[in-house]
Amino acid sequence: MKTAAIIGGGVIGGGWAARFLLNGWDVRVFDPDPEAERKIGEVLSNARRSLPGLGNVALPAEGALTFHATIAEAVEGAAWVQESVPERLDLKQKVYAELQQHCAEDALIGSSTSGFKPSELQEGRGNASRIVVAHPFNPVYLLPLIELVGTHVNPVDVIARAKEIISGIGMYPLHVRKEIDAHIADRFLEAVWREALWLVKDGIASTEEIDNAIRYGFGIRWAQMGLFETYRVAGGEAGMKHFMAQFGPCLTAPWTKLMDVPEFTDELVDLIADQSDEQSGMHSIRELERIRDDNLVGMMRAMSANDWGAGALQNVQDKAREGEAGLLSHIDQIGDLSKPVLTLNRTVPLDWTDYNGHMTESRYLDAFAQSTDRLMLLIGCDAEYIASGGSYFTAETHIRHIDEVHAGHSIQVRTQVILGAGKKMHLWHEMYEGDRLLATGEHMLLHVDLATRRSAPPAEHVEAALVKLATAHAALPAPDGLGRAIGAPR
Amino acid sequence: MKTAAIIGGGVIGGGWAARFLLNGWDVRVFDPDPEAERKIGEVLSNARRSLPGLGNVALPAEGALTFHATIAEAVEGAAWVQESVPERLDLKQKVYAELQQHCAEDALIGSSTSGFKPSELQEGRGNASRIVVAHPFNPVYLLPLIELVGTHVNPVDVIARAKEIISGIGMYPLHVRKEIDAHIADRFLEAVWREALWLVKDGIASTEEIDNAIRYGFGIRWAQMGLFETYRVAGGEAGMKHFMAQFGPCLTAPWTKLMDVPEFTDELVDLIADQSDEQSGMHSIRELERIRDDNLVGMMRAMSANDWGAGALQNVQDKAREGEAGLLSHIDQIGDLSKPVLTLNRTVPLDWTDYNGHMTESRYLDAFAQSTDRLMLLIGCDAEYIASGGSYFTAETHIRHIDEVHAGHSIQVRTQVILGAGKKMHLWHEMYEGDRLLATGEHMLLHVDLATRRSAPPAEHVEAALVKLATAHAALPAPDGLGRAIGAPR
């Protein structure tokens, strides 16, 4: 049974709750804050809006969310306990003492701490081997990074199991080799924060100018390649060693300056808070969260298309979820060939909507094209086949929009082969949300030789599979709307 | 006359050359390196592949690129001279002395330096008031950020003119308020670089793990909101002051540690170079550049759709370029109403292609939808009208793919109104690359009331404009393929 306990709600605990819930886990929450349910509800509502459509395959059904009055009750049956209480070591250790009295002996305990090392958390605990740092990044429901930090008291199988659970909820466990203050990423955040405070304090730039210096320049670079790979590219064909020889020593001069820490005075706090109000005060935090999530989803989906970075991680997740979503890879796996085939099962992502507040027209064709790709895969026209020089090109498309659909809604496409013979493949896609018909797509495709770019017969095994499916579908009634022209009477 | 002189080629000078050229400037290059022409050619080829399709409006015709044997010849007629020679102050000052003897008195001189302050560059120059720092970021042809740094000797009009030229080539001039070592962004890069060297040296993480810690977490956040706005969101409704009170002091503890600089030994260089080879050695630098550019274009275009960050900058550029690209905003601006209207003039962007190596089918509908949006705009169905509650929804679409097109190619759509009366709008789009017909799109749209989501008559001024256009187009012959159904004989 997949059950997680969330000890401490708030933005981080709520983000963990959303990750587990939307990946099919039951989630049991303990948080003494009377506002905890509302706060977690707000995070969940952001997560439900953005995460399910991030990938191209439907997530499992949501788990059950329950709130509990005691730690003892919350950890019941939990395989993973995530602690996100305030950053006070005495408080954390008190929480571990209590929860370890009640949780399963083999339950794993992850701490969201950024300030403590795992050895500090484990100190004095009887069952210390089950405690690790699992440090997430806000928004936890979208960003995949988890810094997983253990000590020598954590056996190999505990780390392996922790990685498995973190991967299973769509995240990336970065196993930090040795514990260190602030783990990895926060050390960078801190270094940049320190420089930024100096720049504002000394009147070199405002908070907005600093944000622009980041997001119009290296921020976009880092989003996809990080630091070292970016510099490798900058170094050119001569390689990383050349880059370091050229730029490494130059960097030492400024290193000797401004290494001290700006004093954290009220004046500095006011200066920064005022500039931040001027920069972003026209948006509420809720608005900023949604703007941020729209951007993160759009950028991660752009990287998915390139199978790179955070997008490549998402593609691995999608692939792993296909079976559960009912999406097959070969017609031999189809039980009943006589019915239209499920070729798409996904959630409408945030970047598929337009100014009219619904899924925009070109994304209907995007969805139908994904269905066509699935049908091609089913008949053996897969990546390997395409690399060998054969593929199908769409010659003609006719889409009828029957009803609207919105971001976050679940859509399915079922596909009927109207004709499959020789070079021709004539498909009929129907898009549904549950029983509600949203659109139909009629498509004529031709098999082509990718070298000559002209139509040519498919390989025998591809044609045989297509004919098999077309023959089985021939007994189906002709779909309503087949062969219609625009403006023709119904 | 728009002429720029590029003094010093290489990756940075080449990037500047590409920015100017692709925005219609003539570019004159001086670089004594016998390989300069090849090196700039390689950067240009990357730039031509990625930049023209970044926005949704065609760029002007490319300027002329010439190479010159002397600085004197290269700066002839240049309004902007960009210096990107090696980072040696004596060399830079020698270059300025020579070029200021030959360039126009009012020519602006921008330096790509990251290591020198403008006061250092200006020192001892007779015409120092024309010299500024204009520090770009690699790849210069895609990243919009320019740190523009001057001193008290630069008059206000010099800075204003520099901003105008930088904006005119699609970049963002960030005017740094006071000069400081390493300007703004490089201070952050340096701080992170220093921390990263420690982490690798101490065996906490490999170069690949560090890159993953960045690109699966805060790197994606920073790409769209930078540092301060990200923290403002993290602070929640309580605001930036609350965030600083909560997290500011916590950060001071690690600040006291590891503030010294790791020694730049051969061992450290080897360690990092070896790890980098393991991480990225399977890709050549050229491959990595193209992967990077694909990602940057995809992410920036995702942000354009949200009108945010670097994407919002791009949208401003697009808007400014519409007129030159022949795209109008109201039918009253159309000279000859009797011909099909130009509704799209753009370059196929990198993210519009698929595994078959050509523009993917859903992007044809994306392009046609942009054409429909343009036609709506022309008849007065603009953002303001839509906000008031009326819009057109597409009911039916029929696309015929006539020929292939590839990323980087220029496409135009011309639109004929087949029927425009009452709630109905029947459009015929033809997509061309030059004279080559690529596809036709036939679309039936209905005017809707956005409150009821049901069809309803448009406002009088919208209907009148549509009828005017439909009446003028009624004399055109019926397009070949109009009203065709899929599979119907021609």
From TrEMBL, chains A, B:
Domain 3-hydroxyacyl-CoA dehydrogenase C-terminal: residue ranges: 184-250
Reactions it catalyzes: carnitine + NAD(+) = 3-dehydrocarnitine + NADH + H(+)
Pathway membership: Amine and polyamine metabolism; carnitine metabolism
GO molecular function: carnitine 3-dehydrogenase activity
EC number: 1.1.1.108
Annotated 3-hydroxyacyl-CoA dehydrogenase NAD binding domain residues: 4-179
Family listed: Belongs to the 3-hydroxyacyl-CoA dehydrogenase family. L-carnitine dehydrogenase subfamily.
Function: Catalyzes the NAD(+)-dependent oxidation of L-carnitine to 3-dehydrocarnitine.
UniProt-recorded name of the protein: L-carnitine dehydrogenase
Origin organism lineage: Bacteria, Pseudomonadati, Pseudomonadota, Alphaproteobacteria, Rhodobacterales
